[in-house]
Amino acid sequence: MIWKPNVTVAAVIEQNGKYLLVEETPNGADIKLNQPAGHLEPGESILHACSREVLEETGHTFLPEALTGIYHWHAPHNDTTYLRFTFSGRVTSFDPERELDTGIIRATWFSLEEVRTKQASHRSPMVMQCIEDYLTGRSYALDILTHYD
After folding, report:
1. Theoretical Cys-Cys bridge with 104: which of 16, 90, 100, 144, CB 3.0 to 4.6 Å?
2. Considering the entire predicted model, what is its pTM?
3. CB-CB contact of 22 with 36 (8 Å)
4. What is the helix (H) or strand (E) element at residue 113, kind and residue range?
5. What CA–CA distance (Å, rounded) separates 10 from 126?
6. Is the per-residue pLDDT at 27 higher than 80?
7. Chain-centre distance of CA 145, in angstroms?
């Protein structure tokens, strides 16, 4: 059997000093905080996956503008390795009536201090790391990614 990591995408979305996060119950577990994030689907570009996941989990239409980083993390609780592509960008619209993905309790805005205070409830160490990298100005042009149809 060939081992493969789970490819995921996430978005660091900041407006007026607040960050858009989701409160979720992964697999019925305790409430966790995460960036809007999810898995790459077959045939989908990484950029489209990020925009789709943000919409499905928050009701916000997201335009990725830069790659913040690529993160490799092994989750000991489920023995799964994740390869996460995280993007920064902006929201262009919001549909408050949109039904959110299963397991998402709500999407809401948190100050940086609130995000730091709630680290014990982060879904993974990548949540804070992605925000910290965004704050330091890590930003890579999207043309670093190539998708073949």
Report:
1. 100
2. 0.95
3. yes
4. helix 112-117
5. 10
6. no
7. 17
- How does DSSP assign 18-81, residue by residue? EEEEEEE-GGG-S-EEE-SEEEPPTT--HHHHHHHHHHHHHSEEEEEEEEEEEEEEEETTTTEE
One-letter identity of residue 56: E
Please classify residue 49 by burial: count the beta carbons closer than 10 Å to its beta carbon, then call 0-12 exposed, 13-18 middle and 19+ buried: buried
The pLDDT value recorded for residue 28 is: 73
User: What value does the mean pLDDT take over residues 78-86?
Assistant: 95
For 26, phi and psi rounded to 5 degrees? -65, 125
Asked if the model's pLDDT at residue 43 lies above 80, the reply is yes
* β-strands 32-34, 18-24 pairing: antiparallel
Task: State the SS3 of 67-84.
Answer: EEEEEEEEECCCCEEEEE
pLDDT, position 29? 74
State the amino acid at position 139 in one-letter form. Answer: S
Q: How many residues does the chain have?
A: 149
What are phi and psi for residue 30, nearest 5 degrees?
-60, 160
- Other CB atoms within a 10 A radius of the CB of residue 90 amount to 14
Q: How far is CA 11 from the centre of its chain?
A: 4
Residue 91 has pLDDT above 80, yes or no: yes
